[in-house]
């Protein structure tokens, strides 16, 4: 049976539960616009193709070679002229052609034995698979092949340039290089490629209650799940987490010094927790002492608070700071909604700037008040084959298990109700 996820505004813990009026909350689009403003674009570097997986291409790559470089056979068989075969005939086998060897022109009224990937000799215009061919020795001892007909020109032949044509754009600037893209580069004989430098990130998860996994828990302590989770998410989004201390003392001075030191070494600082107004929330005043900060109270759940700041460095640069909520689900959702597009801007990566959107059928019911909800859902075809979104039963922002199997975020607009069977827009979670 479809379940109805929690719909109250104050269903989570920490900053996310601060009561607010609709007028005091900013829409998601406003925060995204501010996040993308004045982003530093990473410089380019030339690296080996073998090390370029996941990197963002900095310039168009034009094909230098046709692929395949010549007409070749797509199977083991025999090549001939369609005109010579007619309705079927015996032809002497004049040559044997293996892949990687240059063939001789095909003589009239003859055929050639060739193998998958072998170049088609001049004069041949058809390949017949070997399973259809009968062999015998001719009257003079020359091997002959019976080639059944009639045949069409080009059968079983991969034409030159069928995959890639020299001079055409092979790959576009701004794309993230995956295995297939690396294969295309390798197929052109390219050993190096020009990409955007990875964004260097410092990640801080604050709070004296946090301890690292593997240590014994004392009363009042919790394991630091955000540090390892966000580190992996940032890596998945193409960043390089170069600073992620196990512990920053929960004081203003220690927080300020850690942020100041990191700002001189990285391109982006991400903090988790400590951006509210409590006596133990030191991140906000520490950032303000080093630069500036805006605290956004967003009309979304989970993840109402978002801190956007800048830290001035000795070199004159202003390093962007993104402060996510401390609740694990809020941090996880915030990474998808804010860190992923920010990294897309900083590396000029088109795919990272926006999560793919799809409309599917809801297999749940839900309602919202003044905030737009982002329900963690998995996607599966219904009985009729139509894709459905199945919401995890407990959508509380402290329940990280709702993220472990999530494949999408179902968007439930403010002041709305969704019933099972309604169409719902989802953000597809893809790296």
From TrEMBL:
Question: CDD domains under this entry?
Answer: MoeA (cd00887)
| Matches recorded under Pfam families | MoCF_biosynth, MoeA_C, MoeA_N
Q: What is one term from the GO cellular component aspect held by the record? A: cytosol
Pathway membership of this protein?
A: Cofactor biosynthesis; molybdopterin biosynthesis
Domain MoaB/Mog, first and last residues per copy = 202-345
Q: Please list the reactions this protein catalyses.
A: adenylyl-molybdopterin + molybdate = Mo-molybdopterin + AMP + H(+)
> Which keywords does UniProt give here?
Magnesium, Metal-binding, Molybdenum, Molybdenum cofactor biosynthesis, Transferase
What GO terms in the biological process aspect are recorded for it? Answer: Mo-molybdopterin cofactor biosynthetic process
Enumerate the SMART domains for this protein: MoCF_biosynth
The record's function comment reads: Catalyzes the insertion of molybdate into adenylated molybdopterin with the concomitant release of AMP.
Family classification: Belongs to the MoeA family.
State the protein's name.
Molybdopterin molybdenumtransferase
Please report the organism this UniProt entry assigns to the protein: Cobetia crustatorum
């Amino acid at each position: 049976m479809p379940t109805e996820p929690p719909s109250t505004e104050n269903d989570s813990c920490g900053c996310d539960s601060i009561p607010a009026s609709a007028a005091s909350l900013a829409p998601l689009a406003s925060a995204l616009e501010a996040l993308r403003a004045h982003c530093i674009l990473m410089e380019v570097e030339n690296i080996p193709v073998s090390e370029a997986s996941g990197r963002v291409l900095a310039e168009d790559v034009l094909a230098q070679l046709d692929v395949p470089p010549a007409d070749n056979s797509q199977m083991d068989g025999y090549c001939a002229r369609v005109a010579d075969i007619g309705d079927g005939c015996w032809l002497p086998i004049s040559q044997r052609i293996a892949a990687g060897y240059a063939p001789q022109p095909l003589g009239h009224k003859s055929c050639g034995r060739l193998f998958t990937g072998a170049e088609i000799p001049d004069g041949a215009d058809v390949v017949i698979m070997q399973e259809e061919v009968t062999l015998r020795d001719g009257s003079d001892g020359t091997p002959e092949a019976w080639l059944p007909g009639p045949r069409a020109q080009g059968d079983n032949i991969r034409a030159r340039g069928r995959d890639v044509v020299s001079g055409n754009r092979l790959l576009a600037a701004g794309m993230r290089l995956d295995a297939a893209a690396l294969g295309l580069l390798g197929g052109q004989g390219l050993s190096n490629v020009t990409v955007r430098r990875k964004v260097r990130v410092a990640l801080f998860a604050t709070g004296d209650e946090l301890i690292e996994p593997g240590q014994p828990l004392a009363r009042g302590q919790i394991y630091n799940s955000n540090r390892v989770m966000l580190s992996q998410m940032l890596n998945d989004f193409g960043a390089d987490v170069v600073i992620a201390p196990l512990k920053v003392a929960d004081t203003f001075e220690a927080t300020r010094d850690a942020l100041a030191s990191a700002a001189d070494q990285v391109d982006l600082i991400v903090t988790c927790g400590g951006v509210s107004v409590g006596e133990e929330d030191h991140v906000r005043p520490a950032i303000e002492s080093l630069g500036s900060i805006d605290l956004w109270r967003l009309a979304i759940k989970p993840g109402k608070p978002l801190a956007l700041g800048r830290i001035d460095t000795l070199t004159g640069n202003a390093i962007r700071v993104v402060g996510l909520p401390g609740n694990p689900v809020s941090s996880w959702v915030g990474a998808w909604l804010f860190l992923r597009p920010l990294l897309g801007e900083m590396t000029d990566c088109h795919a990272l700037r926006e999560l793919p959107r799809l409309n599917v059928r809801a297999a749940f019911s839900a309602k919202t008040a003044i905030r737009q909800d982002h329900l963690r859902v998995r996607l599966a075809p219904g009985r009729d084959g139509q894709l459905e979104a199945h919401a995890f039963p407990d959508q509380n922002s402290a329940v990280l298990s709702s993220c472990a199997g999530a494949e999408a975020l179902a968007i439930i607009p403010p002041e709305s109700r969704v019933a099972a069977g309604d169409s719902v827009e989802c953000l597809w979670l893809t790296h």
